[in-house]
Amino acid sequence: MRKFLLPALTAGLLSAHAYAFEPFVVRDIRVEGIQRTEAGTVFNYLPVRVGESFNDEKAAQAIKALFATGFFKDVRIEAEGDVLVVVIEERPAIASLDFTGMKEFDKEAIKKGLREVGLAESRIFDRAVLERAEQELKRQYLSRGRYSVEVKTTVTPLERNRVAISFQVDEGEVAKIRQINIVGANAFKEKDLLKLITLTTPNWLSWYTKNDQYSKQKLGADVETLRSWYLDRGYLEFNVDSTQVSITPDKQDIYITISITEGEKYTISGVKMSGDLLLPEAELRKLVKLRTGEEFSRKNLTDTTKAINDRLANEGYAFANVNAVPEPDKDKRTVAFTVFVDPGRRVYVRRINVVGNSKTADQVIRREFRQMEGAWYDGEKINRSRTRVDRLGYFDAATIETPAVPGSTDQVDVNITVKEKPTGNLMFGAGFSSSESLILSTSVSQQNLFGSGKSLSLSLNSGSINKTYALSFTDPYYTPDGISRGFDLYLRNVDPTRLNIGNYRTSSIGAGLRWGFPIREDDRINFGLAVDQTSIDTFADSPLRYKNFVNEFGDTNTSLVSTIGWGRDTRDSFIYPTRGSVQRVNGEVSVPPGDLRYMKASYQHQTYFPLWGDFVLMLNGELGYGRGYGGKPLPFYKNYYVGGIGSVRGFETASIGQRDRDANGNLLRTTIGGDRKLVMNAEVLFPFPGMGQDKTLRLGTFFDAGNVWADGQSLSVSDLRYSAGLSVAWSSPMGPLKFSIAQPLNKEPTDRLQRFQFQMGNVF
């Protein structure tokens, strides 16, 4: 009997016939040494079967194939007569993974990450994989600023050829940026330049922003911020010479030095147009932002080339190439530009593809598109389409790409990628005051019902005075051309007796239908018809005006209300508008055969202006006017009310205006509202300091003014109530939060104040 031994370390020698022997026909195959691996797995990798001839070449192939599986630590092949014997030694399996001392990361998340690289419980243990996992874990800690981290691994053998792996982690302390220096700054003060960049030394907000921890990506972004700052202010030759990052021996403090060369400031000496202009030069020159005699600005240069590109794109030239070539004169410190225009070929859109909408139906997105498939490419329509999709409010982000169709020179596809967000909203509102304590309200809404684009909402208000239950449904595309239809149901109870400020109760129930018609791209008109029934319970000590109303018109009134409205929305974003405006005009008339006769009209104009950087100015104005006709007054429950977080902050909700009186003429705490309303708001919105470009947390400084005037009062600006304060809006993980702290500026002794107000919500 001859034995043929091929240990693992000589597998390469087999291929060179180091142990040659006479071939034989395999009568049987036997596998020895397996504990967990099935014999069939070994058979599958063998290049020989029973009845076939076996030689040294096939032996080498078998050993290489079995080693390649990664399951085995050693492999030997022996021949006992005409029986082929495969002797293997299995690698141990991983029985458990354990982490001690780890606080910075979630252990389950780390296990999931290690599983992706092949290190997980029940898998074959590989020392090389373990070493890579250890280095990757260290790298993750370094990315968190923990440069003194130590990671040690222990492999403990267990019974049944298994091992337990333990990671002992000493996280150490987070290294902080102790100093940032900008060397070479002469035109601007170093302290002013440091305010421009994201990285900073520790401050009171560092626990949240982590901007006091070094990041290569953040440093790169900060360098580009400095470059843009100088280039936008005429420093054409600005250059960042080097960036140096050093860490102290104890790995606790980081020092950053940015060396720059400012160069000289350049002014524009002239701008020329060249190439295939395609459009009249006079028209293109209107798009040029560079002006002779002004200082050079890279932003204006970029805006110029982009504007010309966009203009050509509107004509179908999606791949136009516009380049501005500088001609600097170093002696005069001037620079001239020649703008070369190459429009390329005119292209059309082959297909529109929607990506990322796992819940929202394709048609909900496609119906907002103004660019059509098969039509000439129009950049303005494509941008307009993206804006319309963004304004739906269903997505955190909507981006559009226009790649060329492979193999074609005149076709592109339009790919819109959306990132869906929860569109259900569970909203809570609360306010505090010395008179009413806690006022609560809630609403449940779904703005994208089953991904159809339809909205459904249920509102509940549990205030100590008002209780409201309302159900609304809207189909924004009841017809394919954008005609909307909706309905509203509501039940409203007013019970001020709980606060001992007027013994009466009102209960209103109503239902209505609404229709909306698009008349232009940003304009819609709306029509509605609703039925409202209001019942009033009065008592001996009820306010006089309620008694008079009931005595004259009865304790139950039914009205048929017709509404008409017009709206225009040109905001660039539904969630975080920075420019554009919203205008609304609404009219409401009670018509026969209802019991009441009144009319109301309102107008709102809200505009957003970009100021500088990320600062945005919001101006809002609202007017309201109501009157009775046909010998009947405007019902008191149709009055306008002002005060609170939605109008004039710092005053209790609906508390501004004339006070009510009881039957004896004594002044009550309740306001009677009014038939005329004026509200004005001015607010500067800006990112929270230290948050960089993150807009999830925004601050605002505001100035509010407003009042209402009852029948018989003359409208006077001197009656306005004013307030000013700070607001905070945070799109937190638990939902949107809004806070305001306001100081009334001209309160009267009878005014009811509410300086702190907040609104919180949770999405689902």
Automatic annotation (TrEMBL):
One of its GO terms (biological process) is Gram-negative-bacterium-type cell outer membrane assembly. Keywords: Cell outer membrane, Membrane, Repeat, Signal, Transmembrane, Transmembrane beta strand. Residues 24-91, 92-172, 175-263, 266-344, 347-421 form the POTRA domain. GO terms for cellular component: cell outer membrane. It holds the Pfam family POTRA. Belongs to the BamA family. This is Outer membrane protein assembly factor BamA. It comes from Methyloversatilis universalis (strain ATCC BAA-1314 / DSM 25237 / JCM 13912 / CCUG 52030 / FAM5).
